[in-house]
# Entry
Amino acid sequence: MEAMEKISVTQKELPSGNCQVKFFIEDEQKPQYGYLLVNEPKPVGEIIAEIQERLERRRMATSGLNPFSLKNPVREDNNFYLYSA
# Structure
């Protein structure tokens, strides 16, 4: 895995008992932010590791794919959302 950008997180417990994590990826060329839904509050280190893993999975799934091809659609992850800042 390439060197990761700086990731900062904030957690918010939801009425359902789940925990919503808002994260920021501080990258000079491509700053991003997103949300991760987890089942329970976790230590920050575990959350950052999970975010890094999901980012890497997303990169691997989209690398080399023709954006106009429907052959290998990226599986949607309803607990992880990523946006450009």
